[in-house]
Amino acid sequence: MGLNYIWDLLVQAQESGIHKRDVTFLPAKVYSPYMELSLEDLNAVAGEQVEVEVNPFYRFSDVFRDLLNINLMEDEEIRHTLFDILIHFLAELDFMQGMNKREYHIRFVLRDLEAGAFGERVKERIGLFERDEREWIACAILRMYDTGETLNLLRSTVSRIFRRSTIYVNSEEKDEMLFYIGQKKTELAGRKLELLMELFLPVRYRTEVYWDCHVGIIDAADTMIQDRIAMY
């Protein structure tokens, strides 16, 4: 799906690690009347300066028709600088109008995670997660504040990030959690799981982690495959 609006482009820039200050908007000289942006993809990487042409009359004709009047030939550099500032401001308004109170709170939590308010190790490792995964974690933290619940939040968050995982909780005989992740262990996956435990695991619980071999369970054929049974 191509980029249609200025906020589309800033979202993709953010996901690519490009700061919005490195994006410069220019009034397009040739443009489609049915599109705000003409590019299909943001072909740039972090640290690069990006210039993007915008159809200023797609949504904001009332704002720009005088500033970009074709009969006005003077002060072009100043007018283009003002255009860039105004388009950035309008993109921010797009963001604000699309966010509710909960989404604001999620962003506050994300800011705290990335700033080190949850500890230096969390600050270092939160960047290992994809953007959607970071938002799931922030949302779970907000629920933890609201409900005081941690075990179910740990289970649901791990399950969303490791799609083939299963978590068993033994709270009757001893406080213990068994994690079956369902994939080969990698350094990245291991560090992600450690961070989730640091955020949500109650301190009294001990854990066992099984990556690609499940503990054998009688009458569960999928867990009783020879040479793939983990010892418990």
Layout of strands and helices, then pairs:
Layout (H helix, E strand, L loop, with lengths): L5 H10 L7 E5 L22 E5 L6 H4 L11 H22 L3 H15 L4 H6 L5 H17 L3 H11 L4 E5 L5 E5 L6 H14 L5 E5 L3 E2 L13 E2 L2
Parallel strand pairs: 1-2, 4-5, 6-7
Antiparallel strand pairs: 3-4
Helix pairs in contact: 4-6, 6-7, 7-8
Order of helices and strands: HEEHHHHHHEEHEEE
What's the end-to-end separation, in Å?
48 Å
User: How would you state the average pLDDT, rounded?
Assistant: 85
Net shape = elongated
Q: Percent range for helical residues?
A: 40-55%
Percentage beta strand: 5-15%
Kindly name the structural category. alpha/beta
Describe the largest sheet. 3 strands, mixed
Number of helices: 8
How would you write the strand order of the largest sheet? 3-4-5
Beta-strand segment tally: 7
C-alpha Rg (nearest Å): 25 Å
Low-confidence regions: none
How would you describe this structure to a colleague?
- The protein has 232 residues and is α/β, with parallel strands linked by helices.
- 43% of the residues lie in helices and 12% in strands.
- The chain has 8 helices and 7 strands; from the N terminus they run H-E-E-H-H-H-H-H-H-E-E-H-E-E-E.
- The protein has helices at 6-15, 61-64, 76-97, 101-115, 120-125, 131-147, 151-161, 187-200, and strands at residues 23-27, 50-54, 166-170, 176-180, 206-210, 214-215, 229-230.
- The strands form 3 sheets. Strands 3-4-5 form a 3-stranded mixed sheet, with no helix packed on it. Strands 1-2 form a two-stranded parallel sheet. Strands 6-7 form a two-stranded parallel ribbon.
- Helix 4 packs across helix 6.
- The mean pLDDT is 85.
